[in-house]
Amino acid sequence: MNENKARRYALLSSKIIKGLASRNIEAFWAPTSEDALKTALSLVPKGARVTMGGCASAVEIGLVDALKRGAYEFIDRDAIEDKRAAMLAAYDADVYLSSANAITEDGVLVNIDGNANRVSAIAQGPRMVLFIIGVNKITPDLDSALKRARNVAAPINAQRFGLSTPCSSTGACADCKSPDCICCQILITRFSRHPGRIKVILVGQDLGF
């Protein structure tokens, strides 16, 4: 990343972390993927039962591989034939890995979902939700966060999964009601009533979509 961009994000991170703290959410700044991996592993207790939704960011920093190799009980939903059982197991996990489709400069998290397994687990169930968020997900406010989720993250994910949605063809949200719609539910996390449950690692690199 360009040195000036990196410096700007490092400065902006302190504002975001302060905003998250005001929302009962603990946050950490990691300049690189390597730093993010170290921080994440320091937060996940040995022996923890860990699973995730579709979290490309956790894969990209090497966290998923590290958990599979380490002293953890990693529930790999891609390796389980009964997908419903794998999704339901998330609600009783010790740690649930996720990213955000967008995060505002004052610390509001925005996530969209097609099946609701990810947003429902973020909202309730797992003892800890650990977000890995690249700086490409930062937006100035909630309105721009919602627009990013629907016009950037959703089309890319629809294309990635081979879905037949208007956004997959045009690259922009059409507010569709397609059977393949990937943004059926929208979760806005503006506060956590449970101290320590939600943790965010903000990474000074582009991650995910």
Walk me through this protein's architecture.
This protein has a single domain (3-203), classed as 3-Layer(aba) Sandwich (Rossmann fold), CATH 3.40.50.10420. The protein has eight helices and ten strands. The protein has helices at residues 3-21, 33-43, 56-60, 63-69, 83-89, 117-123, 142-160, 166-170; strands at residues 26-30, 49-52, 73-74, 95-98, 102-104, 109-113, 128-134, 138-139, 185-189, 198-203. The strands form two sheets. Strands 1-10-7-4-2-3 form a six-stranded parallel sheet, sandwiched between helices. The protein has a four-stranded mixed sheet with strand order 8-5-6-9, sandwiched between helices. A hairpin with a 4-residue loop joins strand 5 (102-104) and strand 6.
